[in-house]
């Protein structure tokens, strides 16, 4: 047997060494990081406030539901989508900074954060924030956004790695046409499976935690960070979002399911009494009633959809970035 057939086949790492010329020096992404931080600082509070204002109008604690609340809710979700696109195209810091600074930190403190500014004159501005801050909804939303930024970072790195490996395989085979993209079926399947499997425990833990946080928070005896169920549910929710780094399909599917459940609660508040059996079944879960009437699923579902989409485009952005680097390497050879 010849030595040609006795040698093991080359893998991606060996083929990478055969690319022509030295690797191109990494291009600075400082401007992208700065832009992302600024957008995260400015856009996130406006997006969250508008979304919470819309939820407060659609699902008020007292009085009838106002369909006009759909406008600020949709506008807030659109601003979150802008935040996600900046994270996908420029830097994942947009979601990380916005989620941590405007979601996690105030969410951990809860009601005491608003106590200095509470009063009759500020009630129209602060009322939409009282229930979300006290129950821990702001905390869960901020953690999901921060996890979405981490998922964008992971997806961008995976896209760059995939592009470089495929380019190495083409180079090793001496092909002139791009290789067919490798199947990501298992990544999609795992992402969908674990996203759907984790949703029930997320619902139970968040429901219990938010109900307890709301009861004790209104009396200022406890804060959201003191509720173990709320913290555990928030961590599991972040895990679901992080699955977008593997495949955005799972978190997006889970997000649309949560949005659908939230819309059912809004439609019932608008007078569609035929939905009562479905809402009764959903309310039977521990803390399920609180999750429905607080608009939790509307906001968290929208964030899951946004973060999943951002991770999808971050992966594509990573492939384009690596393709450009490979072109520079070839041109300098």
Radius of gyration: 23 Å
User: Which structural class best describes the helix and strand composition?
Assistant: mainly alpha
Shape: globular
How big a fraction of the residues is strand?
Answer: under 5%
Largest sheet, in brief, is:
none
Termini gap: 36 Å
Number of helices in the DSSP assignment: 13
- Determine the mean pLDDT: 83
Polypeptide structure, described:
- With 333 residues, this protein is mainly alpha-helical.
- The chain has one domain.
- The protein contains 13 helices and no strands.
- The two termini are 36 Å apart.
- The model is unreliable at 1-22 (pLDDT under 50).
- Keywords: Membrane, Transmembrane, Transmembrane helix.
- The chain crosses the membrane at residues 34-55, 67-86, 93-114, 134-155, 192-216, 228-246, 253-272, 292-314.
- Residues 1-27 are annotated as: Disordered.
Q: Which SSEs are present, and which pair or pack?
A:
Elements (H helix, E strand, L loop, with lengths): L2 H4 L5 H5 L13 H29 L11 H20 L3 H17 L13 H13 L1 H37 L11 H33 L10 H15 L6 H21 L6 H8 L4 H6 L2 H37 L1
Helix pairs in contact: 3-4, 3-5, 3-6, 4-13, 5-7, 7-9, 7-13, 8-9, 8-10, 10-13
Which short descriptors sum up this protein?
single chain; 333 residues; mainly alpha; transmembrane helix
């Amino acid at each position: 047997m010849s030595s040609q057939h006795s040698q093991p086949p080359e893998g991606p790492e060996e083929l990478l060494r055969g690319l022509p010329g030295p690797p191109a020096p990494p291009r600075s992404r400082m401007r992208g990081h700065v832009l992302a931080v600024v957008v995260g600082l400015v856009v996130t509070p406006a997006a969250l406030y508008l979304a919470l204002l819309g939820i407060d109008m659609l699902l008020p604690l007292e009085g009838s539901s106002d369909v006009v609340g759909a406008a600020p809710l949709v506008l807030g979700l659109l601003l979150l989508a802008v935040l996600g696109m900046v994270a996908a195209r420029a830097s994942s810091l947009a979601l990380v900074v916005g989620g941590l600074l405007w979601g996690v930190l105030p969410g951990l403190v809860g009601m005491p954060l608003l106590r200095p500014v509470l009063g009759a004159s500020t009630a129209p501005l602060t009322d939409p924030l009282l229930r979300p801050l006290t129950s821990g909804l702001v905390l869960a939303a901020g953690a999901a956004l921060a996890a979405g930024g981490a998922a964008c970072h992971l997806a961008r790195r995976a896209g760059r790695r995939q592009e470089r490996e495929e380019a190495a395989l083409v180079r090793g085979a001496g092909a002139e046409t791009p290789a067919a993209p490798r199947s990501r079926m298992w990544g999609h399947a795992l992402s969908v499976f674990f996203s759907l499997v984790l949703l029930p425990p997320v619902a139970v833990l968040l429901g219990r935690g938010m109900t307890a946080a709301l009861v004790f928070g209104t009396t200022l005896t406890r804060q959201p960070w003191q509720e173990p169920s709320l913290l555990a549910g928030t961590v599991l929710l972040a895990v679901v979002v992080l699955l977008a780094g593997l495949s955005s399909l799972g978190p997006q599917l889970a997000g649309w399911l949560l949005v659908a459940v939230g819309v059912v609660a809004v439609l019932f508040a608008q007078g569609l009494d035929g939905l009562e059996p479905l809402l009764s079944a959903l309310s039977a879960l521990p803390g399920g009633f609180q999750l429905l009437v607080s608009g939790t699923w509307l906001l968290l579902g929208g964030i899951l959809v946004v973060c999943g989409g951002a991770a999808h485009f971050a992966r594509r952005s990573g492939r384009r970035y690596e393709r450009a680097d490979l072109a520079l390497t070839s041109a300098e050879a």
